[in-house]
Every structure is written in structure tokens, then in C-alpha cells.
Design goal:
12-stranded antiparallel barrel; Tubby Protein, Chain A; alpha+beta; 18% helix
Length: 206
């Protein structure tokens, strides 16, 4: 799956859903190459009807298609003010983590490698769903996320998203860095955007 350089991500439309599932396609060939799904138990699904999901842990498994082999996982524990999201390989090794900004309505957060060195910063905007993954100094773009039109009925009557993730040329031969960028982009939508909606906070830090 990580051989691709562009990833088209489409959220599956599910009514009354309590967890998210996304299909991942090669952005150049349009062939499905993976799936990202939030994995939660029955009890937690029931609790989400009454308790905000930000008060509970969340794990996302990213698997290849068609072999269904685990590629990496994204995990966030329960949090109060600032969340920490970890990225693990299929073998369970942590390769990096994300820290949300204290005031972040647009989903901005910082990306660190496993040695606690800042690897990147994710910056968003208020209009649409466009994010950039930048080096810590802000001079080099490592990747970007752009919202794609999903069709009038889908856009109006559901909250399902479709977007493109584009990885910078310098990372295309580095699977670990590419994994971190892809995980950061997935976490932007599946975790941090949901946190922003739940908290109603305003971005003061982008």
C-alpha cells in the first residue's frame, strides 16, 4: 500500500454510525489499496451515544487491500485538554506521535518521531478541508490534504468526506516518513477534526 505516492480517501457512508471507516485508493490509478477503520468494542459503541468520543480512547487500523494485512495503527488515549496520538507499525513498534495544539479549531498539531524530535507540523485553514504537512521551520512541504467534491447528495445529507493526500517527492522512497505523513493526514480527519467539533474551540495557533 505504501508504494503509492497519492492517496484518495473516501469515507464510507453509514447512517447512525458510531465509528468511522475509510476506503483508500491509489490517487493515480484509482485502484483500492487499503482501508482505515476505527476499531471499538460493542460497549464503547453504546457509550458513544451518551458520552463524547473525546473522553474515550480510539484506535484506527490501516490495512492493505486485498490481503487485509495490517500496515500500521493510529491510537489515541482518553484526554482532557491536549491529546497524544501514537503511530505503530504492524509489528507494534511506535514510529512517532502527534500532539494537538491547545486551541485548534482547524486541526493543527505537531508530529514527532520516536526519538521525541519534531518531524513536522500540520497546518489547516478555516475554509474547506485543506491541510499542509510542513517541516518544523515551515520551509518545506512534506505532504498536503485537499478536500474532493463527493457529490451533492453526499455533501448535503451526510458528513462523509472524500479527500486527496499527496506525499512530497523527497519522501516517496522513505516508507517510515511516508507512513507518518499518511497517518498524520488520516488523524487530521478521523481524530483531530472530530475533537474540534466536540470541543468547539477556536484556533489561535495556526
Amino acid at each position: 500500500m505504501l508504494e503509492a505516492d497519492k492517496f484518495l480517501v473516501k469515507e464510507q457512508v453509514k447512517f447512525l454510525q458510531q465509528h468511522q471507516t475509510y476506503d483508500i485508493f491509489d490517487g493515480d490509478t484509482q485502484k483500492q489499496i487499503g482501508i482505515a477503520e476505527e476499531t471499538i468494542g460493542t460497549v464503547k459503541k453504546l457509550l458513544r451515544w451518551f458520552i463524547s468520543k473525546t473522553w474515550m480512547s480510539s484506535t484506527i487500523e490501516v490495512r492493505g487491500v486485498p490481503d487485509n494485512a495490517l500496515v500500521f495503527t493510529i491510537h489515541r488515549g482518553a484526554y482532557f485538554i491536549r491529546s497524544r496520538v501514537e503511530v505503530h507499525t504492524a509489528e507494534g513498534e511506535m514510529i512517532g506521535y502527534f500532539k494537538s495544539k491547545v486551541f485548534s479549531w482547524s486541526g493543527g498539531f505537531w508530529v514527532y518521531d520516536k526519538n521525541d524530535q519534531q518531524f513536522a507540523e500540520v497546518k489547516g485553514n478555516f475554509i474547506g478541508f485543506n491541510y499542509r504537512v510542513l517541516t518544523p521551520d515551515g520551509k518545506i512541504e512534506l505532504g498536503n490534504v485537499s478536500k474532493n467534491w463527493g457529490g451533492m447528495l453526499k455533501e448535503i445529507f451526510t458528513s462523509a468526506d472524500t479527500y486527496m493526500i499527496d506525499v512530497a517527492d523527497d519522501l516517496k522512497s522513505n516508507p517510515i516518513s511516508k507512513m507518518l505523513v499518511l497517518a498524520a493526514c488520516l488523524a487530521t480527519d478521523m481524530i483531530f477534526k472530530s475533537e474540534s467539533k466536540s470541543s468547539g474551540s477556536v484556533d489561535l495557533g495556526d
